[in-house]
Write a structure and sequence with these properties.
Structural class: mainly alpha
Number of helices: 13
Strand content: under 5%
Distance between the termini: 12 Å
Radius of gyration: 18 Å
Number of domains: 1
Number of strands: 0
Shape: globular
Largest sheet: none
Helix content: over 70%
Order of helices and strands: HHHHHHHHHHHHH
């Protein structure tokens, strides 16, 4: 069950970082929001690298890195754009659709096989995403689905879910051809360095904005560093689809943050939806 605890930790840290960035940095551009946590986490990652060391690297590592890194950049930028424009409790939970994509990408890329119980658990998580918009059911059975497209952040997060479905499986390929922590540090050190150079060069970010609140920036960096550790350690222990499904219970924490920090409405249906997601996560953890 260690993988389950680590995956749940990754979910908590992911939701916490999103809430922190929305609360204190949403006046900035999505470009800057997507960089601040990793910009401040960079010293931690560089300091950690010598302790991790360089493991034997398999032949798939660098070719996979070449396509995972740009997709991850796009996904993270869109992620922050989504939470910036829409309620947190109507954006982050839609990442629960990622396991549906991993169900296919994991089978194609990793040749992973899933048990019937695991598939049922993932379907429950997806059903929870439908229930989040159940207040729109007064417009018919398809009302909750149509509501997704009427909320720009929700629709955008579905795109992010698809991209994460690809990068999560690619990340596991890299883990299998190196080690969990080496993969995490390599990906996000490069992410931080390359995105910083691009955004500063193009004028889409400024050092003044990136460093305007060092304490909150450092906290954001510490949170994403903790998420990174939990994510990659768990990914090394279990099928990618199962780990990502548990991590997508970040939607539970996002609904709570949305209620407490942003006074978002419609919490009843959103809590009901997240309860279904939790049930799906439990099915996967206990019987998947």
């Amino acid at each position: 069950m260690t993988w389950f605890v680590l995956s749940l930790g990754a979910a908590f840290f992911m939701a916490s970082n999103s809430a922190l960035m929305k609360r204190f940095f949403s006046d900035l551009t999505p470009w800057e929001m997507s960089l601040i946590p990793y910009f401040h986490a960079l010293p931690l990652m560089v300091l950690a690298l010598p302790f991790v060391g360089i493991p034997p690297i398999g032949p798939r590592f660098f070719p996979t890195l070449a396509w995972v890194l740009p997709l991850l950049m796009v996904a993270i930028i869109l992620h922050y754009r989504a939470i910036r424009m829409s309620p947190l409790s109507l954006t982050l939970p839609f990442l629960s659709f990622t396991p549906v994509f991993v169900l296919f990408t994991g089978g194609l890329i990793l040749d992973e096989t899933l048990t019937p119980q695991g598939v049922i658990g993932m379907l429950l998580v997806v059903l929870g995403g439908y229930v989040l918009n159940l207040d729109a059911a007064r417009y018919g059975f398809l009302g909750p689905i149509k509501a997704i497209w009427k909320e720009p952040g929700s629709a955008l997060m579905l795109v992010v879910a698809f991209l994460f479905g690809l990068t999560s499986v690619g990340g596991k390929v890299m883990i299998l051809d190196s080690s969990p922590m080496f993969t995490a540090l390599t990906v996000f050190i490069l992410y931080s360095l390359i995105l910083t150079a691009i955004l500063l060069k193009t004028g889409k970010a400024t050092l003044k904005n990136l460093t305007r609140d060092p304490k909150l920036g450092a906290l954001a960096g510490l949170i994403v560093f903790a998420e990174m550790i939990c994510h990659n350690m768990a990914m090394n222990m279990v099928a990618a689809a199962y780990m990502i499904t548990i991590k997508r219970t970040a939607g539970i924490f996002s609904v709570i943050y949305g209620w407490l920090l942003f006074h978002e409405t419609g919490i009843r249906y959103r809590l009901f939806g997240t309860a279904i997601m939790t049930a799906g996560a439990a099915v996967i953890a206990l019987w998947g």
